[in-house]
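Lecture notes, unit on binding sites. The following record was shown on slide 14. It pairs a sequence with flavin-adenine dinucleotide.
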Amino acid sequence: MIVGAGVAGVQTAVALREQGWTGAITLLGAEPHQPYDRPPLSKAVLLGKSEGSAFEVDFDSLGIDLRLGREVTGLRPEERVLDTADGPEPYDRLVIATGAEPVVLPGTEGIPGVHLLRTLDDATRLRPVLADQHDVVVVGAGWIGAEFATAAREAGCKVTVVEAADRPLAGALPAEVAAHMVGWYADCGAELLTGARVVSLSEGAVLLDDGTRLTAGAVVVGIGARPSTDWLAGTGIELAADRSVVTDERLRTSLPDIYAVGDCASFPSARYAERLLVHHWDNALQGPRTVAANIVRGEAEGPLYDPVPYFWSEQFGRFVQYAGHHAAADELLWRGDPATAAWSVCWLRQGVLVALLAVGRPRDLAQGRKLIERGARLDQRQAADPSVPLKSATV
Ligand SMILES: Cc1cc2nc3c(=O)[nH]c(=O)nc-3n(C[C@H](O)[C@H](O)[C@H](O)COP(=O)(O)OP(=O)(O)OC[C@H]3O[C@@H](n4cnc5c(N)ncnc54)[C@H](O)[C@@H]3O)c2cc1C
């Protein structure tokens, strides 16, 4: 029984069949739509260049019982039963893949013209906003805010992005790196207001803490996401302070025969010596293979999950990619001039490459990711020279 029919849930079902699971597989998804991928929602789908991004998976031929529009509301682990509006569903093994939901600005739910961007329905509601070239205020200069601003500018909207921190991507990147992204907003004709807090939202207007009143045909709130795990409260399953389902290194939860994977789950990374909650697509693609292998092998324990996290973002005409995981104390090493269209930054821990951000340098990313996996030590002088392939800049 798999709960959540996003990429992690669907891939778990597929991986179970690929790895030889012959038992029944049921996939319960709350959304009414054929399971689909989210990354295109803030890109081609918004602009009407693509109708959607349904997965090309033949559920019937794989023997996967896909049930859509089925929200799971509770778990009774003692009885091995899930609760849904249509009644209880028994399970032998359970995989929790309920993903994440956008953080809502308090008091803004239900205000007309205030949008979130997580689901196909959200993107469908936002399409006419772009097509009609409304003035848009985006709250939050994170990954989603930047991608939405990019699409809205491409559609010809006037765009103002309001960010409470002093820079974009404040939660993800250090100030000296993010500083080089500030200009991207202006270059594409979007206004970025940093250090600006929203005090109230109403239909057509956004009030900031310095008294500024912005008028808006639409407001898009992109201030982060949190694991969709409210339905697990009080069930006895261990949840972390960030609300993620706590798993071990095999993505097993604190309860027997229950696994968790994707945006809803955190796992202990031996590689980075900390628990990671990764809200990116690649994690929701890779984790399911580990879950499936452990379910199929049963008592003979399966593989451990300790990936080099990876994600990409398409924003302001740039392809931004990141691999690994860095901490504030890690040393920064620049590769190329961040004033240009293509540059990278490496993070080193005692000379070893632990993370890399590549802007318009996909080769750096591909090579860097492998070096991170191997724990390679960089020759810092060579690595700082963007004409030297990163894979050759090791000691
Ligand atoms: C607009 C957008 C753009 C993105 N772009 C990128 C990108 O460019 N690069 C990148 O690396 N990542 C990107 N991401 C992140 C990536 O899409 C997510 O990491 C990925 O979707 C996580 O997959 P998941 O299956 O864990 O969760 P989800 O995709 O959230 O799927 C979970 C599913 O479970 C369902 N569900 C929740 N609760 C219940 C319940 N109680 N019962 C039944 N079903 C339930 C939900 O309705 C949902 O369909 C983007 C995300 C968004 C929203």
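Take-home: The two ends are 48 Å apart (CA to CA).
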